[in-house]
């Protein structure tokens, strides 16, 4: 059955953990969906792990629609959330509504995610009122990497920890149906999870969150540019892929591949006729 924001509400009420993964294409989304993940995020981490940018800043609404629609075709049951990229919602409520609308109409998202606290509450309210569920994102918000001066754990001092709590309460009041907490101390994330009525989805925020999310290339060992402390590598798919690619290269160069079983046949009679005609 298709998962919706009701799945998120119910999970919070029943104290059941939610699972999310990122995906950016049809085949991967289909495998995740078959595995039973609750929701798939078409994250703007697309910029890093798919497009090879240094950060998420250059990702466009068009990129998100292109990859989002592919994921939506593969996700039969999982809810699909698409990230609103940098400057697609910060400029005005009007821009946010237009772009969130495009992610739903053209990208086939069931919800959108955007970064920020009190400063984006007006946007969260407007987009939600327009009928589009909004997932918030607090803590390490990668679109603000140039303000943070790098990807670092956030909210360790009293003032920033208090701001995180205030922001979490504000985005809930503005109508967000869930919130991602990224790279914040586990005890703080656990406390916020207790005081909010909406589910918290942690990434580098410890076990006290109501759910977890990971970038799939990180958890499968497919992305080697950097490895955050919070990532658990569940499989070494990167090594498996590299071995398969090098086996393919070696077998092709040495003539082992393709073998007889990979060929299509044609009758000898036809071939003989063709050869005589061409002679
Ligand atoms: O873009 C992304 O993949 C994200 C997750 C890390 C939560 O925002």
Number of domains: 2
Q: Oligomerization state of this entry?
A: single chain
Residue windows where pLDDT falls under 50 for at least 5 positions:
none
State mean pLDDT (0 to 100 scale). Answer: 97
Strand order of the largest sheet: 1-2-3-4-5-6-7-8
CATH-defined architecture of the largest domain = Alpha-Beta Barrel
List the bound ligands. 3-methyl-2-oxobutanoic acid
CATH level 3 topology of the largest domain: TIM Barrel
Shape: elongated
Secondary-structure element order, as H and E? HEHEHHEHEHEHHEHEEHHH
Q: In this structure, how is the largest beta sheet organized?
A: 8 strands, parallel, barrel
What's the arrangement of secondary structure elements?
Blueprint (H helix, E strand, L loop, with lengths): L4 H9 L4 E5 L3 H10 L3 E4 L3 H4 L11 H14 L4 E5 L9 H13 L5 E5 L5 H9 L4 E6 L5 H4 L9 H17 L3 E5 L3 H10 L4 E4 L7 E4 L1 H4 L17 H17 L14 H11 L1
Parallel strand pairs: 1-2, 1-8, 2-3, 3-4, 4-5, 5-6, 6-7, 7-8
Helix pairs in contact: 2-4, 5-6, 6-8
The structure holds 3-methyl-2-oxobutanoic acid.
